[in-house]
């Protein structure tokens, strides 16, 4: 209590004065706490090499995550399986800390036989769920590391006539484990017409194959006009046609990320040139928490209940002692949700 | 003789007058004959779907070969094997007829497992050699259909970091059968810097894997300045960074093939924008005959001698009669080269 009072002294004081019970400060407390603790977000990028995954992430978070990257040559890639690497970068903006974990899938779709390219990715996601589950039922729960993948940007080649077989297979394998957000990569090689056609084709194929991509929540009725307009723009942009760049130039005093062609200059953040800003707004400014909630409430819960079901079944054949134990865990987690 | 006289009367007349023997007219006769017969050329295009193969061919020959094309969706492509289609178009320009056979490789690199994508292509090329060989040793040799592949444009993705494993494997499988000309596809998504880097990387990988691509013959010393300049330009451009377009607009009265982006207009035939003109000059204006000669003298001869060697060996175990027969063929063909 003393510890709490110390930190919330300002709020408590005002509230004592007005003789409130005080629970109105709870949102503020959560706000303060979250700022103090900082945020954590895990983003996965999937797509063939060369589709600009690294460049886009650098552009999104204004960092340079890939300074010491080594690109393998064809021989290296022949024998290579999909390698999953995780990098962490801490970004601070106006006192708010974001710990960004970036999970990259190098070599995906790169080998001669891509039949099992997505198997390793699927295993990785499960592995993070399992780690979280173990920590969640353990003794020390205050510092659970959360490496669960909250969002997966799936890069679709602008050259495909819609989705490729590998895209369909991979999305089907991952759709119940992670929030998939499809992006149309390197959109600077597509004219406006082509972008629209590809988007329509991709959307109709997503429909046809019943692929489950991340569904944006409906906009709350009490949001302001600007937010609602932005929300509509974001929803309309799926799959986001994106352009990334590591080249920053100075145009009339403002720093702009560009790609310079002999026939013109592409500005990454110009909404007439690409959906980059919509994707960034969505990911960072408006839907980050929803992506985390979806991960915890839907994908992780699915994993956990499957785990429980599987272990219950195994144990019914074995000893009845363990069954009771499993039930206890199930109960306790439901009583004390962690988020 | 009468037939000849009728056709070459103009040349014969002048030559009789000057009391020449007349063989100086041979080049002219060949010229006249070839114009009368017309030219035949078979071009193969290999590359993942979506790399602009059809569009480039349309742009090169100013035709529309692909009006009734149907693009398969992901499901269709999952089960699909590489389908080889051949189309023929006759083009006439200033009285010279060109019969252009276009061999397309649909579905290449498109399936989940691409391990044997190039097998069908290799078989196709052999099949054309075999057909030619059979006709060549047959009775009626005046109208041999020549469907041998004279040139293969190999489309390299602009998104690969150099060559992909599939590219290397495929080129290795085809390099002794056909003249491979590598092109860097859809170069309008690469800045000038990126084009240069990719080209260097591709060339050094071609070197590293000892891939045999088409070697341009040295320029004859008696060619004029303009031709030599153009020849240097062409050789420097390999692998040709190309852009194709089916969209023709009118710019200041001249018809231009373009791609219209929000940030600028790409002109296909502008040498500052791509190597398209160099590729077209090479293919149509300067090196078409050399490509045909290389096919006949090197690739086809290799096929034929392998065939002879194989059948000689088989037959030594069997009857000696057939061996003699094979030898006769070998001899006769060498005495009467067809070209």
TrEMBL record, chains A, B:
Gene3D superfamilies hit by this protein: P-loop containing nucleotide triphosphate hydrolases (3.40.50.300)
Keyword GTP-binding applies: yes
Swiss-Prot/TrEMBL GO biological process terms: cell division
GO molecular function: GTP binding
Site (Important for dimerization): 159
Domain of life: Eukaryota
Compartments, as annotated in UniProt: Cytoplasm
Predominant place of localization: cytoplasm
Cellular component, GO annotation: cytoplasm
Protein name, entry field: Septin-type G domain-containing protein
Natural source organism: Esox lucius (Northern pike)
A Pfam short name: Septin
Similarity section: Belongs to the TRAFAC class TrmE-Era-EngA-EngB-Septin-like GTPase superfamily. Septin GTPase family.
CDD domains for the chain: CDC_Septin
PROSITE patterns (alphabetical): G_SEPTIN
InterPro entries: G_SEPTIN_dom, P-loop_NTPase, Septin
UniProt keyword annotations, A-Z: Cell cycle, Cell division, Cytoplasm, GTP-binding, Nucleotide-binding
Chain ranges of the Septin-type G domain: 37-310
